[in-house]
């Protein structure tokens, strides 16, 4: 089994802020934690057709899911047309991008009206992509053209800073794809917070590496593999300055942690005469390893693991890639203890 690269670790001990202060800014930053973001590809017309979900706030302030359909049409070797459309508050909205892959031209249509047209020698000679902002249905819209190498491009739509979560074919098609975040308050005691953190191999947040029983972290439901996204007013992607951030708190340390609900432990008993039977892939958000397939004839099918779950740790080790996750699973002798962000029966995360 390949060795896990050494990671820096920090322990959060006792440290001072008003416990009534709103937790942290992470949930409002637009940093999505989607398992897969819907994008169109200038070199793959069929793969660029599909649909995804995002959440919009209506006039009452309530957040509601919205289904966005993405279509693509390659008119010739130069011009590609990507269209996104959705219904919101009894109206249908449409955003259309026309991009000249060789000519560099780009046109943006919103609800069938031309809002922007660009053509430049620079883009014709070397198209380095662009971002286009507009208003659609009272919401802030943003279309991005991103070079992907070998003369290809990716196209993405955001609404109010939110990426669209790609629908997945199969059992998770009706489930939300957003991993989400939840606020946590840990009381500061002389015993410390009772956990250590390491840098996330996926470069998003920091990973809970150890948890001491009967201390603040374990009592709050934190488990090995959970990803802490922010502490107090600070978004974090490394353990640098964590002790300082914790020291800013008064009676409680406010955090945002990946996952709307608490992570949970799922155990898989390995059978000698059958494979474990899990399909795994990386998540676009950089949190955990996504379960894309559960083989009905495998050992995992007899456990509570489901397609769409996200593996955070395997027998106490945080996997750094799907390949590493497979190594950890195959090296386990009998019981595989998984910490996962999963979906409850009602479809919530």
Characterization of the model:
The chain is mainly β and 349 residues long. It folds into three domains: 9-28 and 178-258, Pdz3 Domain (Roll), CATH 2.30.42; 40-167, Beta Barrel (Lipocalin); 264-341, Roll (Pdz3 Domain), CATH 2.30.42.10. The protein contains four helices and 24 strands. It is globular.
What's the overall geometry? globular
Tell me the strand percentage band. 35-45%
Query: What is the number of helices?
Result: 4
- What is the helix/strand order? EEEEEEEEHEEEEEEEEHEEHEEEEEHE
What's the total number of strands?
24
- Structural domain count: 3
The percent of residues in helical segments reads under 10%
Summed over residues and divided by their number, the pLDDT gives a mean of: 83
Q: What's the CATH topology name of the largest domain?
A: Lipocalin
Notable characteristics:
mainly beta, 349 residues, 4 helices, single chain, 3 domains, Lipocalin, disordered N terminus, Pdz3 Domain, globular, disordered C terminus, seven-stranded antiparallel sheet, 24 strands
Short description:
The chain has 349 residues and is mainly beta. It has helices at 121-125, 216-219, 242-247, 322-331; strands at 9-11, 40-41, 50-57, 63-74, 79-88, 91-100, 106-110, 113-118, 130-136, 139-149, 152-159, 162-163, 165-166, 181-187, 195-199, 206-211, 227-231, 234-235, 252-258, 264-269, 278-282, 289-294, 310-314, 335-341.
SSE blueprint:
Layout: E1 9-11, E2 40-41, E3 50-57, E4 63-74, E5 79-88, E6 91-100, E7 106-110, E8 113-118, H1 121-125, E9 130-136, E10 139-149, E11 152-159, E12 162-163, E13 165-166, E14 181-187, E15 195-199, E16 206-211, H2 216-219, E17 227-231, E18 234-235, H3 242-247, E19 252-258, E20 264-269, E21 278-282, E22 289-294, E23 310-314, H4 322-331, E24 335-341
Antiparallel strand pairs: 1-15, 2-11, 3-4, 3-13, 4-5, 5-6, 6-7, 7-8, 9-10, 10-11, 11-12, 14-19, 15-16, 16-17, 17-18, 17-19, 20-24, 21-22, 22-23, 23-24
